[in-house]
Amino acid sequence: MNHPSTPTDDALVLYGQRFDSRLLLGTARYPSPASLQAAVQRARPAMLTAALRRQGSIEQGRNFWAMLKEMQVPVLPNTAGCHSVQEAITTSHMAREVFGTPWIKLEVIGDDYTLQPDTLNLVAAAEQLIRDGFYVLPYCTEDLVLCQRLVDVGCQAIMPWAAPIGTGRGPANPYAMQTLRQRLSVPMLVDAGLGLPSHACQVMEWGFDGVLLNTAVAQAADPVTMAGAFADAVAAGRAAHRAGAMQPRESAQPSTPVLGTPFWHHAQEA
Question: Active site residue: 22, 42, 105, 241, which one?
Answer without folding.
Answer: 105
